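A further point concerns the way the authors explain their paired sequence and structure data. Each protein is reduced to its one-letter sequence and a matching series of backbone shape codes. An entry of this sort, consisting of the sequence and the corresponding backbone structure tokens, reads as follows:
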Amino acid sequence: MSENELDKSKRGFLVATSVMSGVAAAGAATPFVASMFPSERAKALGAPVEVDIGKLAPGEMMRVEWRGKPVWIVRRTKEMLESIEKSDDKVTDPQLAVDQQPDYAKNENRSIRPEVLVLEGVCTHLGCSPQFKPKDMSPEMGADWVGGFYCPCHGSKFDFAGRVYKGAPAPTNLKVPPHMYVADSTIVIGEDKKGA
């Protein structure tokens, strides 16, 4: 074998070794680089949730999950809306001084549309999930109960706007998450016009 042939053979071996080393390094780096991106589950936990409320009848509530929390959507009846006004003197924060809702829900009904309430279903006391307690379905709440939400863990009560009653262990109203309508009967929870 001549010296030229020997050099070509060595060069070929070095090139092949370099290429294989590069492939191995890329293969080893791929899982490391992939771990830097959030998983599909992590993306889903923070992602906005689109909800069709078209079949939600007056007086009914539906639950969805957003960011690992229950979110309630209630289609309020005329009576439920009237009970909010009657509760003003019974709730801790009737003027919504504590910032628990976006600006577009800083109104008497704490909603974009009066008949549709969107709330995080997490008690502001210790994070329990209160129960939906309409007046006509809750005789155990007493004759003076006008309806709303009740947390059985420690007794906090909230009206149909999610405002906490005086004397309850919960310090603040239930939170209104960011949300917006993308169609007449479709809500996106986790986004609002500012974030869109």
